[in-house]
Give the backbone structure.
Amino acid sequence: MNIAFNKVAVIGAGAMGRGIAQIAAQAGSLVFLYDTQAEASLKAKEAVYQVWDSLVVKGRLEAGTVANYKTNLKTASSLQDLKDCELIVEAIVERLDIKKSLFVELENLVPETTVLVTNTSSLSVTAIAAALKRPAQFAGYHFFNPVPLMKVVEVIAGLKTNPEVCIRLTEFAKQMGHTAVQAHDTPGFIVNHAGRGYGTEALRIVSEGVADFATIDRILRDQVGFKLGPFELFDLTALDVSHPVMESIYNQYYQEPRYRPSVITAQRLAGGVVGKKVGEGFYKYTDGKAVVAPEPAVPQVKEFPPVWVSPRATRRLELLQLLKDLGATLETGASPSPHALTLVAPLGFDVTTVAVVERLDPARTIGIDMLFDDAATKRRVLATNPATRSDMRDAAHADAYWPPTLPPDLTCAMQHMLCLQKMGKLSAWCETAAASSPNALWPTS
Ligand code: NAI
């Protein structure tokens, strides 16, 4: 196989640089890893060696293959050592001024044919290229953490990038076992732009007191199916990377309010509590594993009220079947009896609004999130409103509803239902809005 780049340099031997060096060496390129801290590149090389050795022990790689990989991966002690490389990948600190001056220095060392790329998460590729004499030879090559496992890389052309460079980078990505995606040079490219809806919004949920970070992680992982919750992801990426990314994207979009960063991460960054790599982020880490506080116990309840389900509930038939399977007594009347637990399942509305608009007794009204179907979710999320009675909340949450004859997966899913408390301020807003225009707020079909 003709490899797109025979000699590759990776500058910055941190979390990203070592991963990029690993997959490039595996593809068959001769790779030189360089870091301003000499011990960082040696440590990174040793760490990659250990990964390969452990894959041999697990029977996933041949010892001979790993021996070849190891000869492909070298460290360099100066930028001078990189001057013959055909591709130089930069994965250093996320600072425009520092990246610019590194590339200016490199451009003076290497021939005109060398391709220079940045692994920046959030800076403008065009802005970095503006400092260069040969911007046509420069592009963004944005990998994800951990690089060997995250199989996508964004290839970003700056305003003056030669399209041939992107074609070559795409080809090389394939040779490294990755899929290249062409992204425009806009703040955050594709993934980190979409990530505003994940990380930044999750921080907003915490700051509004809707749920704590561990609960949000559990919901996103177990109900929605993400591999990592947003706070687990923050800990993996580390806040010294992701907080500046949040600030950078926010400012590049001219202070777009949707992307506003949070004081939560600003404070944690200032305090050095940046994530897994320092042993503490949103979680504390022991032997590289997050220490997660146990979930609060599921309440025990002796008597269960009958359940009435709103006719407007999302996936109503699925919800009724779920309740039947769980042994609940279902009410079929047009409105709930005075003792019924009242279940609503709105999409995009909070429980307070629904209780007001549907004229339900808020003290007995509980919401259940039915956005995802049963096949896709391991949990269901319950939501109270500020007036929900504690006996109703406990009845909805309790495991005695779920007889032991249930299939274990269903029992488990329902036992782990979570309660989210909405704040009083939301209720005040909802009541005002609902009173002025109930029909505008709530769909009638
Ligand atoms: P890191 O902090 O783990 O490693 C950065 C390394 O660069 C350090 O070893 C540091 O000594 C070295 N370094 C700093 N300035 C240097 C210079 N002028 N010359 C040579 N080496 C220098 O950082 P990480 O997480 O690997 O991030 C690197 C880049 O990759 C950043 O631009 C970041 O935005 C981007 N990125 C990070 C991701 C992540 O999840 N951590 C994901 C995707 C991109």
